[in-house]
Amino acid sequence: MARIVKLTATGPVKVEPSDKPIFVCACGLSKKFPFCDGSHKPTREEEEGCTYRYCAETNAVLDKSRDA
Predict the structure, then answer these.
(1) Nearest-5° Cα angle at 32, 31 to 35
(2) In this predicted model, what pLDDT tens digit does every residue of 24-50 receive, in sequence order?
(3) CB 65 within 8 A of CB 51
(4) Cβ(60)–Cβ(42) under 8 Å?
(5) Which of 23, 42, 43, 45 falls between 20 and 30 A from 61, CA-CA?
(6) Assign residue 64 a region: left if phi > 0, alpha if psi is -120 to 50, beta otherwise?
């Protein structure tokens, strides 16, 4: 069954272990999930109060709707 998961972050979560930082995806668009690959960049243009649906292959916006 398909389901919609609403994620509100527009960037990764930085985790700092002792040797080098790791960035964990918080937008859900990364092809390397759970690690960030920079796919969050389109989310920077999102309007507040809207829900967006992205193409799984290209991360292009398929549609957006106003939240109720």
Answers:
(1) 130
(2) 998 888 999 889 999 988 888 888 888
(3) yes
(4) yes
(5) 23
(6) beta
Contact 26, 7 (CB under 8 A): yes
Strand ranges (E), 1-68: 13-15, 22-24, 50-54, 61-66
Lookup: tokens for 22: 């790791």
Task: Dump pLDDT digits (tens) for 49-58.
Answer: 888 888 888 8
Q: Is the pLDDT of residue 2 over 70?
A: no
Q: What is the pTM of this model?
A: 0.65
